[in-house]
Amino acid sequence: MSTLITVAPTGAESAKADVPALPVTLDELVTTARACEAAGAAVVHVHIRDSGAKPTLDLGLLRETVAALRETDLVVQLSTGGSVHDPYTDRLKVLDAEPDACSLTCGTVNFGDDVFMNPWGFVAELYRETQARGVVPEFELFDLGHVATMNRLLDRYGPPAGGRVHCDLVMGVPGGFTGDLRTIAAAVSLLPAEATWSATGIGRESLRVMFAALAGGGHLRVGMEDTLTYAKGRPVRGNEELVARAAEAARLAQRPPMTTAQARAFLGIRPAPAPGPTARRVP
């Protein structure tokens, strides 16, 4: 058994002024993606920023980003969460950028001091759109109620594009799952029998969630969206070192990182399209 490693390099919360190593320009993002692919990542989970380094769901920028990331072999997974302030209409339009995959958060959650809104009507509409467009969703689960909502989606609307149910357990957000073994076991016990899962540890939960996921047969998501500290007192210098650490842990568990081709088969994603003539090439 091998390990799917997803990298989430940017997110929508951290400011470039506070975190100089955060990749916010397209050049920085593609350079980071290449380095993370070399280190063992197979999927890149993408949030983008505008020219002022502010989170954005601008469709033109999203399309340009997807085209540029096609220069790697990574599975391109766009966030449909955006920031907690983005309207539902803009979040639905993310699919117009034609990514390989997207995140699909299965419910509302207190997100620190904010509320990340995902009512049933929006979640169901987004899911139906992914099915219609052939975009493979990764079900983002922040608490046990989200697992129930995902099961409701599957029961009511059938299997996702690609036919594989893959989830990400987001552990350690204030208001959501705690990052302990009992909570992971409880969540996994409620997943469909055929489902596969990754786990994301937020901040100080990153290492214990990573080791628990490997021990429990799960897969890994790492990146500067989720943690900015590599070790106590030592900031992350780049996303690739988080990927390299996850890859080494996977090898020690005798579950080496998946290749990008293996990841596409595992997730039910179509083969990577050839870059079009308008794809932006980044040296």
Lateral arrangement of strands in the main beta sheet: 1-2-5-6-9-10-11-12
Total of helices: 9
Shape category: globular
Rg on CA atoms, Å: 17 Å
Average pLDDT figure = 95
User: Regions with pLDDT < 50 over 5+ consecutive residues?
Assistant: 278-283
Please give the structural blueprint.
Elements: E1 5-7, H1 26-39, E2 43-46, E3 48-49, E4 55-56, H2 59-69, E5 75-78, H3 88-93, E6 101-105, E7 109-111, E8 114-116, H4 120-133, E9 136-141, H5 144-157, E10 166-171, H6 181-189, E11 196-201, H7 206-215, E12 219-222, E13 229-231, E14 234-235, H8 239-252, H9 260-267
Parallel strand pairs: 1-2, 1-12, 2-5, 5-6, 6-9, 9-10, 10-11, 11-12
Antiparallel strand pairs: 3-4, 7-8, 13-14
Helix pairs in contact: 1-8
